[in-house]
Amino acid sequence: MTLKVLHVYRTYFPDSQGGLEEVIRQICLNTGSHGVESCVFSLSINPEPAVMKREESILYRFHRTFEVASCGVSLSSFSGFKALTKLADIIHYHFPWPFADMLHLACGVKKPSVITYHSDIVRQKFLLHLYRPLMRRFLNSVNVIVPTSHNYFVTSEELERYAEKVKVIPIGLDNDSYPEVSEDLLRICRECHGEGFFLFIGVLRYYKGLHILLDAIKGTSIRCLIAGSGPVENELKERAVSLGLRNVHFAGHVSDDEKVALLTLCRAVVFPSHLRSEAFGVTLLEGAMYSKPLISTEIGTGTSYINQHGETGFVVTPSDPVSLRQAILKFQNNPELAQQMGRAARNRYEQEFTGELMGKRYAQLYKNILEQQ
Question: What would the DSSP string read from start to end of 105-120?
Fold first, then answer.
Protein backbone atom coordinates (compact mmCIF):
# COMPACT_ATOMS: atom_id res chain seq x y z
CA MET A 1 0.00 0.00 0.00
CA THR A 2 1.33 3.42 -1.00
CA LEU A 3 1.43 6.09 1.68
CA LYS A 4 1.07 9.64 0.31
CA VAL A 5 2.93 12.47 2.05
CA LEU A 6 2.64 16.18 1.25
CA HIS A 7 5.70 18.24 2.23
CA VAL A 8 5.05 21.93 2.87
CA TYR A 9 7.74 24.63 2.75
CA ARG A 10 8.03 28.17 1.46
CA THR A 11 10.51 27.41 -1.34
CA TYR A 12 12.02 24.47 -3.17
CA PHE A 13 14.19 23.48 -6.11
CA PRO A 14 14.61 24.83 -8.74
CA ASP A 15 13.62 28.23 -7.30
CA SER A 16 16.14 28.02 -4.46
CA GLN A 17 19.01 25.81 -3.38
CA GLY A 18 19.67 25.60 0.34
CA GLY A 19 20.24 23.04 3.05
CA LEU A 20 16.58 22.81 4.00
CA GLU A 21 15.51 22.17 0.42
CA GLU A 22 18.11 19.41 0.26
CA VAL A 23 16.71 17.87 3.45
CA ILE A 24 13.22 17.71 1.92
CA ARG A 25 14.66 16.17 -1.25
CA GLN A 26 16.52 13.55 0.78
CA ILE A 27 13.44 12.64 2.84
CA CYS A 28 11.42 12.21 -0.36
CA LEU A 29 14.14 10.13 -2.03
CA ASN A 30 14.83 7.89 0.93
CA THR A 31 11.26 7.18 2.00
CA GLY A 32 10.36 6.11 -1.54
CA SER A 33 11.77 2.60 -1.04
CA HIS A 34 9.47 2.21 1.99
CA GLY A 35 6.26 2.71 0.04
CA VAL A 36 6.00 6.49 0.45
CA GLU A 37 4.92 8.70 -2.46
CA SER A 38 5.92 12.34 -1.93
CA CYS A 39 4.58 15.68 -3.14
CA VAL A 40 5.92 19.14 -2.30
CA PHE A 41 3.92 22.35 -1.85
CA SER A 42 5.95 25.55 -2.23
CA LEU A 43 5.81 29.14 -3.46
CA SER A 44 7.55 30.74 -6.42
CA ILE A 45 7.82 34.22 -7.93
CA ASN A 46 7.32 32.60 -11.34
CA PRO A 47 5.46 29.30 -10.86
CA GLU A 48 5.58 28.16 -14.47
CA PRO A 49 5.13 25.31 -14.81
CA ALA A 50 2.90 25.08 -11.75
CA VAL A 51 3.37 21.31 -11.54
CA MET A 52 6.77 19.69 -12.00
CA LYS A 53 7.63 16.00 -11.97
CA ARG A 54 10.97 15.56 -10.24
CA GLU A 55 12.95 12.43 -9.44
CA GLU A 56 12.00 12.55 -5.75
CA SER A 57 8.51 14.07 -5.85
CA ILE A 58 5.82 15.94 -7.68
CA LEU A 59 6.24 19.66 -7.02
CA TYR A 60 3.24 22.00 -6.84
CA ARG A 61 4.18 25.67 -7.04
CA PHE A 62 1.94 28.61 -6.18
CA HIS A 63 2.53 32.29 -6.86
CA ARG A 64 4.22 34.16 -4.03
CA THR A 65 2.19 37.35 -3.59
CA PHE A 66 4.60 39.06 -1.19
CA GLU A 67 7.19 38.38 1.49
CA VAL A 68 7.56 39.74 5.03
CA ALA A 69 10.72 39.01 7.08
CA SER A 70 11.59 36.07 4.77
CA CYS A 71 8.07 34.67 5.16
CA GLY A 72 6.53 34.10 1.74
CA VAL A 73 2.76 34.57 1.44
CA SER A 74 0.48 33.38 -1.36
CA LEU A 75 -3.04 34.73 -1.38
CA SER A 76 -4.00 32.42 -4.24
CA SER A 77 -2.78 29.15 -2.72
CA PHE A 78 -5.47 28.33 -0.13
CA SER A 79 -7.76 26.33 -2.42
CA GLY A 80 -4.80 24.51 -3.98
CA PHE A 81 -3.37 23.65 -0.59
CA LYS A 82 -6.73 22.37 0.64
CA ALA A 83 -7.10 20.17 -2.46
CA LEU A 84 -3.62 18.71 -2.00
CA THR A 85 -4.22 17.88 1.66
CA LYS A 86 -7.30 15.86 0.68
CA LEU A 87 -5.12 13.66 -1.55
CA ALA A 88 -2.46 13.07 1.12
CA ASP A 89 -2.36 10.62 4.02
CA ILE A 90 0.06 12.75 6.03
CA ILE A 91 0.97 16.44 5.88
CA HIS A 92 4.64 17.08 6.62
CA TYR A 93 5.44 20.71 7.48
CA HIS A 94 8.95 22.15 7.61
CA PHE A 95 9.17 24.76 10.37
CA PRO A 96 9.53 27.72 10.61
CA TRP A 97 7.24 29.12 7.95
CA PRO A 98 4.41 31.13 9.61
CA PHE A 99 2.30 31.11 6.46
CA ALA A 100 2.13 27.31 6.70
CA ASP A 101 0.69 27.64 10.22
CA MET A 102 -1.98 29.92 8.76
CA LEU A 103 -2.73 27.52 5.90
CA HIS A 104 -3.04 24.58 8.29
CA LEU A 105 -5.42 26.34 10.66
CA ALA A 106 -7.43 28.35 8.10
CA CYS A 107 -8.02 25.30 5.90
CA GLY A 108 -9.00 23.17 8.89
CA VAL A 109 -6.59 20.36 8.08
CA LYS A 110 -7.75 17.15 9.75
CA LYS A 111 -5.16 14.78 8.29
CA PRO A 112 -2.34 13.45 10.53
CA SER A 113 0.52 15.94 10.47
CA VAL A 114 4.24 16.07 11.24
CA ILE A 115 6.56 19.03 11.70
CA THR A 116 10.28 18.82 11.10
CA TYR A 117 11.42 21.57 13.46
CA HIS A 118 14.47 22.99 11.70
CA SER A 119 15.02 26.07 13.85
CA ASP A 120 13.69 28.35 16.55
CA ILE A 121 12.83 31.85 15.40
CA VAL A 122 15.92 33.75 16.49
CA ARG A 123 16.19 37.13 14.80
CA GLN A 124 12.68 38.60 14.56
CA LYS A 125 12.02 39.07 18.29
CA PHE A 126 9.22 41.63 17.88
CA LEU A 127 7.49 39.66 15.13
CA LEU A 128 7.86 36.49 17.20
CA HIS A 129 5.91 38.16 20.00
CA LEU A 130 3.04 38.81 17.56
CA TYR A 131 3.34 35.39 15.91
CA ARG A 132 3.68 33.25 19.06
CA PRO A 133 -0.09 32.65 19.64
CA LEU A 134 -0.52 31.37 16.07
CA MET A 135 2.67 29.33 16.31
CA ARG A 136 1.63 27.60 19.51
CA ARG A 137 -1.84 26.79 18.16
CA PHE A 138 -0.11 25.20 15.17
CA LEU A 139 2.45 23.26 17.24
CA ASN A 140 -0.31 22.04 19.55
CA SER A 141 -2.39 20.81 16.62
CA VAL A 142 0.15 18.47 14.96
CA ASN A 143 0.79 14.84 15.91
CA VAL A 144 4.58 14.78 16.11
CA ILE A 145 7.35 17.40 16.20
CA VAL A 146 10.73 16.25 14.85
CA PRO A 147 13.89 18.17 15.84
CA THR A 148 16.92 17.19 13.80
CA SER A 149 19.20 16.57 16.78
CA HIS A 150 18.96 15.90 20.49
CA ASN A 151 21.30 18.88 20.98
CA TYR A 152 18.72 21.23 19.51
CA PHE A 153 15.84 19.70 21.43
CA VAL A 154 17.45 20.13 24.85
CA THR A 155 18.55 23.72 24.15
CA SER A 156 15.25 24.98 22.71
CA GLU A 157 12.93 26.64 25.21
CA GLU A 158 10.04 26.35 22.76
CA LEU A 159 10.47 22.61 22.19
CA GLU A 160 10.46 22.02 25.94
CA ARG A 161 6.74 22.80 25.91
CA TYR A 162 6.04 19.90 23.54
CA ALA A 163 8.39 17.24 24.91
CA GLU A 164 5.67 14.58 24.95
CA LYS A 165 5.23 14.79 21.16
CA VAL A 166 8.91 15.17 20.21
CA LYS A 167 10.70 12.47 18.20
CA VAL A 168 14.30 13.24 17.19
CA ILE A 169 15.34 12.15 13.68
CA PRO A 170 18.76 13.33 12.47
CA ILE A 171 19.13 14.52 8.90
CA GLY A 172 20.72 12.03 6.53
CA LEU A 173 22.11 12.19 3.00
CA ASP A 174 22.21 9.58 0.26
CA ASN A 175 25.69 9.58 -1.24
CA ASP A 176 24.37 8.04 -4.47
CA SER A 177 21.98 10.98 -4.98
CA TYR A 178 24.97 13.29 -5.54
CA PRO A 179 26.58 13.46 -9.00
CA GLU A 180 29.77 11.66 -9.90
CA VAL A 181 32.14 14.36 -11.06
CA SER A 182 34.09 13.98 -14.28
CA GLU A 183 37.86 14.32 -14.44
CA ASP A 184 37.37 17.23 -16.86
CA LEU A 185 35.35 19.23 -14.32
CA LEU A 186 37.85 18.43 -11.57
CA ARG A 187 40.64 19.67 -13.82
CA ILE A 188 38.74 22.90 -14.62
CA CYS A 189 38.00 23.55 -10.93
CA ARG A 190 41.60 22.77 -10.00
CA GLU A 191 42.88 25.22 -12.61
CA CYS A 192 40.46 27.89 -11.36
CA HIS A 193 40.70 27.41 -7.59
CA GLY A 194 43.67 25.12 -6.95
CA GLU A 195 43.22 22.54 -4.18
CA GLY A 196 43.77 22.34 -0.45
CA PHE A 197 41.65 25.45 0.12
CA PHE A 198 39.16 25.88 2.97
CA LEU A 199 35.58 25.72 1.74
CA PHE A 200 32.28 27.22 2.76
CA ILE A 201 29.16 26.30 0.77
CA GLY A 202 25.71 27.67 1.47
CA VAL A 203 23.30 30.56 1.21
CA LEU A 204 25.04 33.73 2.36
CA ARG A 205 22.87 34.73 5.31
CA TYR A 206 23.46 36.88 8.39
CA TYR A 207 23.80 33.94 10.79
CA LYS A 208 26.45 32.08 8.77
CA GLY A 209 29.27 34.01 10.48
CA LEU A 210 31.17 34.63 7.25
CA HIS A 211 32.23 38.10 8.38
CA ILE A 212 34.03 36.32 11.23
CA LEU A 213 35.71 33.97 8.74
CA LEU A 214 36.98 36.97 6.75
CA ASP A 215 38.42 38.49 9.94
CA ALA A 216 40.03 35.14 10.78
CA ILE A 217 41.97 34.82 7.51
CA LYS A 218 43.19 38.42 7.43
CA GLY A 219 46.99 38.60 7.42
CA THR A 220 47.40 34.85 6.80
CA SER A 221 48.19 32.58 3.86
CA ILE A 222 44.93 30.66 4.37
CA ARG A 223 43.12 30.25 1.05
CA CYS A 224 39.37 30.33 1.46
CA LEU A 225 36.62 29.73 -1.10
CA ILE A 226 33.06 30.87 -0.40
CA ALA A 227 30.51 29.22 -2.71
CA GLY A 228 26.93 30.45 -2.76
CA SER A 229 24.88 33.59 -3.03
CA GLY A 230 22.44 35.31 -0.71
CA PRO A 231 21.28 38.44 1.11
CA VAL A 232 24.65 39.44 2.60
CA GLU A 233 26.78 38.68 -0.47
CA ASN A 234 27.56 42.30 -1.39
CA GLU A 235 28.21 43.19 2.23
CA LEU A 236 30.74 40.36 2.53
CA LYS A 237 32.50 41.32 -0.69
CA GLU A 238 32.78 44.91 0.52
CA ARG A 239 34.21 43.69 3.82
CA ALA A 240 36.77 41.55 2.01
CA VAL A 241 37.88 44.60 0.01
CA SER A 242 38.08 46.80 3.11
CA LEU A 243 40.23 44.16 4.84
CA GLY A 244 42.50 43.95 1.80
CA LEU A 245 41.94 40.21 1.43
CA ARG A 246 43.42 38.51 -1.60
CA ASN A 247 43.17 35.02 -0.18
CA VAL A 248 39.38 34.67 -0.41
CA HIS A 249 37.38 33.92 -3.54
CA PHE A 250 33.63 34.29 -3.91
CA ALA A 251 32.52 31.62 -6.36
CA GLY A 252 28.84 32.60 -6.40
CA HIS A 253 26.14 30.03 -7.03
CA VAL A 254 27.59 26.65 -8.04
CA SER A 255 25.93 23.68 -9.70
CA ASP A 256 25.62 20.32 -7.94
CA ASP A 257 28.52 18.98 -10.01
CA GLU A 258 30.69 21.96 -9.14
CA LYS A 259 29.80 21.60 -5.47
CA VAL A 260 30.99 18.00 -5.45
CA ALA A 261 34.18 19.00 -7.29
CA LEU A 262 34.91 21.68 -4.67
CA LEU A 263 34.23 19.23 -1.83
CA THR A 264 36.66 16.83 -3.49
CA LEU A 265 39.42 19.41 -3.87
CA CYS A 266 39.22 21.27 -0.54
CA ARG A 267 41.33 20.66 2.56
CA ALA A 268 38.43 21.09 5.00
CA VAL A 269 34.91 22.46 5.30
CA VAL A 270 34.57 25.64 7.38
CA PHE A 271 31.18 26.44 8.89
CA PRO A 272 31.45 29.51 11.14
CA SER A 273 27.70 30.01 11.85
CA HIS A 274 27.45 31.91 15.12
CA LEU A 275 23.70 32.00 15.88
CA ARG A 276 21.08 29.36 16.70
CA SER A 277 19.36 30.02 13.39
CA GLU A 278 21.86 27.40 12.18
CA ALA A 279 20.04 24.41 13.56
CA PHE A 280 21.92 21.57 11.85
CA GLY A 281 24.32 22.38 9.03
CA VAL A 282 23.77 20.19 5.97
CA THR A 283 27.05 21.45 4.50
CA LEU A 284 28.90 19.88 7.42
CA LEU A 285 27.19 16.59 6.63
CA GLU A 286 28.18 16.91 2.96
CA GLY A 287 31.76 17.54 4.01
CA ALA A 288 31.74 14.43 6.21
CA MET A 289 30.24 12.40 3.37
CA TYR A 290 33.20 13.43 1.19
CA SER A 291 35.72 12.55 3.93
CA LYS A 292 36.61 16.13 4.80
CA PRO A 293 37.44 17.36 8.30
CA LEU A 294 35.09 19.95 9.72
CA ILE A 295 35.43 23.28 11.51
CA SER A 296 32.31 24.65 13.23
CA THR A 297 31.30 26.59 16.33
CA GLU A 298 29.53 25.67 19.56
CA ILE A 299 26.04 27.17 19.33
CA GLY A 300 24.12 24.39 21.08
CA THR A 301 22.63 22.93 17.89
CA GLY A 302 23.07 19.98 15.55
CA THR A 303 26.35 21.33 14.19
CA SER A 304 28.12 19.92 17.25
CA TYR A 305 26.25 16.64 16.85
CA ILE A 306 27.69 16.20 13.37
CA ASN A 307 31.14 17.55 14.18
CA GLN A 308 32.69 15.86 17.20
CA HIS A 309 35.49 18.05 18.56
CA GLY A 310 38.89 16.39 18.31
CA GLU A 311 37.50 13.45 16.32
CA THR A 312 35.93 14.69 13.07
CA GLY A 313 37.32 18.22 13.29
CA PHE A 314 37.33 21.21 15.61
CA VAL A 315 34.47 23.01 17.37
CA VAL A 316 35.46 26.55 18.32
CA THR A 317 33.97 29.49 20.19
CA PRO A 318 31.38 31.37 18.09
CA SER A 319 32.14 34.93 16.95
CA ASP A 320 35.84 34.42 17.76
CA PRO A 321 38.09 34.93 14.71
CA VAL A 322 41.22 34.02 16.70
CA SER A 323 40.04 30.53 17.67
CA LEU A 324 38.65 30.02 14.16
CA ARG A 325 42.01 30.99 12.65
CA GLN A 326 43.87 28.63 14.98
CA ALA A 327 41.65 25.71 14.00
CA ILE A 328 42.10 26.39 10.28
CA LEU A 329 45.87 26.67 10.67
CA LYS A 330 46.02 23.28 12.39
CA PHE A 331 44.67 21.67 9.23
CA GLN A 332 46.69 23.88 6.92
CA ASN A 333 49.95 23.02 8.68
CA ASN A 334 49.16 19.33 9.21
CA PRO A 335 47.63 17.67 6.11
CA GLU A 336 47.92 14.24 7.76
CA LEU A 337 45.73 15.37 10.66
CA ALA A 338 43.19 16.71 8.15
CA GLN A 339 43.09 13.36 6.35
CA GLN A 340 42.79 11.43 9.63
CA MET A 341 39.87 13.53 10.85
CA GLY A 342 38.31 13.42 7.39
CA ARG A 343 38.24 9.63 7.57
CA ALA A 344 36.66 9.83 11.02
CA ALA A 345 34.03 12.24 9.66
CA ARG A 346 33.17 9.76 6.88
CA ASN A 347 32.88 6.93 9.42
CA ARG A 348 30.50 9.01 11.53
CA TYR A 349 28.42 9.81 8.46
CA GLU A 350 28.12 6.10 7.64
CA GLN A 351 27.08 5.23 11.19
CA GLU A 352 24.62 8.07 11.91
CA PHE A 353 23.69 10.17 8.91
CA THR A 354 22.95 8.12 5.80
CA GLY A 355 19.88 8.89 3.78
CA GLU A 356 18.82 5.27 4.07
CA LEU A 357 18.70 5.48 7.85
CA MET A 358 16.78 8.77 7.83
CA GLY A 359 14.30 7.44 5.27
CA LYS A 360 13.65 4.32 7.32
CA ARG A 361 13.02 6.41 10.45
CA TYR A 362 10.59 8.80 8.75
CA ALA A 363 8.71 5.99 6.98
CA GLN A 364 8.27 4.21 10.31
CA LEU A 365 7.12 7.45 11.94
CA TYR A 366 4.49 7.97 9.23
CA LYS A 367 3.19 4.42 9.66
CA ASN A 368 3.08 4.73 13.45
CA ILE A 369 1.06 7.94 13.23
CA LEU A 370 -1.48 6.36 10.87
CA GLU A 371 -1.82 3.27 13.09
CA GLN A 372 -2.65 5.53 16.06
CA GLN A 373 -5.55 7.24 14.24
Answer: HHTT--S-EEEEE---
pTM score: 0.90
Q: What is the pLDDT of residue 331?
A: 98
Residues 172-228 have pLDDT tens digits of 999 999 999 999 999 999 999 999 999 999 989 999 999 999 999 999 999 999 999
| Contact predicate 93/114, CB 8 Å | yes
Query: Domains of the chain, with CATH numbers?
Result: 3-174+354-371 (3.40.50.2000), 176-352 (3.40.50.2000)
Strands 198-201 and 224-227, bridge-based pairing: parallel
> To the nearest whole number, what is the mean pLDDT of the chain?
96
d(CA 193, CA 4): 44
Contact partners, residue 204, CB within 8 Å, separation at least 6: 210, 226, 228, 229, 230, 231, 232, 233, 236
pLDDT tens digit sequence for 284-318: 999 999 999 999 999 999 999 999 999 999 999 99
34 neighbors 53 (Cβ within 8 angstroms): no
Cα–Cα dist 280/285, whole Å: 9
Residue 46 neighbours by CB under 8 Å, 6+ apart: none
Going by C-beta distance under 8 Å and a sequence separation of 6 or more, which residues neighbour residue 94?
7, 8, 9, 20, 23, 24, 100, 115, 116, 118
- The tens digit of pLDDT for each residue in 69-105 reads 889 999 999 999 999 999 999 999 999 999 999 999 9
- Taking residues 340-363, what's their average pLDDT? 98
The rounded distance, in Å, linking the Cα atoms of 108 and 115 is 16
Contact assessment for residue 143 and residue 113, using Cβ atoms and an 8 Å cutoff = yes
Q: Show the DSSP H helices in the chain as ranges.
A: 19-31, 78-87, 98-106, 125-141, 150-155, 157-160, 183-193, 210-217, 233-242, 256-265, 282-289, 303-306, 321-333, 335-352, 355-371
**Comparing C-alpha atoms, which of 263, 291, 282 is closest to residue 198?**
263
Half-sphere exposure of 70 (CA within 13 A, CB side): 14
81, 67 in Cβ contact below 8 A?
no
* Cβ–Cβ under 8 Å, residues 303 and 297: yes
Q: Is the dihedral of CA 193, 212, 329, 199 positive or negative?
A: negative
